[in-house]
């Protein structure tokens, strides 16, 4: 499994980038709020979460190790998968997510697309 990837961003889409490492391009998904921070042609280190299911293998990358940790915590919540966890991280910073959860502020959490009322109850 990958701990991190370091290489040059060859191109970026709204939800993933292609990072070149010694001539091999890796597709790495990332939270949308990091889109503006990533520039094509620059080198970056992405902390990787290896998302493996029976029919899917995705590399999910984070510019900060703390974001990967909160992503992993979100995945432990029943009913939250990788797409929904990425949506939460796309809308809120690491510190804001910790604040929301510690204050049980699920009204703020409702701002996340795809996170319905039913899912808020899973978090409490």
UniProtKB/TrEMBL annotation:
<dbReference type="InterPro" id="IPR012340">
    <property type="entry name" value="NA-bd_OB-fold"/>
</dbReference>
<dbReference type="InterPro" id="IPR000085">
    <property type="entry name" value="RuvA"/>
</dbReference>
<dbReference type="GO" id="GO:0016787">
    <property type="term" value="F:hydrolase activity"/>
</dbReference>
<keyword id="KW-0227">DNA damage</keyword>
<dbReference type="GO" id="GO:0005524">
    <property type="term" value="F:ATP binding"/>
</dbReference>
<dbReference type="GO" id="GO:0006281">
    <property type="term" value="P:DNA repair"/>
</dbReference>
<dbReference type="GO" id="GO:0006310">
    <property type="term" value="P:DNA recombination"/>
</dbReference>
<dbReference type="GO" id="GO:0003677">
    <property type="term" value="F:DNA binding"/>
</dbReference>
<dbReference type="InterPro" id="IPR010994">
    <property type="entry name" value="RuvA_2-like"/>
</dbReference>
<keyword id="KW-0963">Cytoplasm</keyword>
<keyword id="KW-0547">Nucleotide-binding</keyword>
<dbReference type="Pfam" id="PF14520">
    <property type="entry name" value="HHH_5"/>
</dbReference>
<keyword id="KW-0233">DNA recombination</keyword>
<keyword id="KW-0234">DNA repair</keyword>
<dbReference type="InterPro" id="IPR013849">
    <property type="entry name" value="DNA_helicase_Holl-junc_RuvA_I"/>
</dbReference>
<keyword id="KW-0347">Helicase</keyword>
<protein>
    <submittedName>
        <fullName>Holliday junction ATP-dependent DNA helicase RuvA</fullName>
        <ecNumber>3.6.1.-</ecNumber>
    </submittedName>
</protein>
<keyword id="KW-0067">ATP-binding</keyword>
<dbReference type="Pfam" id="PF01330">
    <property type="entry name" value="RuvA_N"/>
</dbReference>
<keyword id="KW-0238">DNA-binding</keyword>
<keyword id="KW-0378">Hydrolase</keyword>
<dbReference type="GO" id="GO:0009378">
    <property type="term" value="F:four-way junction helicase activity"/>
</dbReference>
<feature type="domain" description="DNA helicase Holliday junction RuvA type">
    <location>
        <begin position="1"/>
        <end position="59"/>
    </location>
</feature>
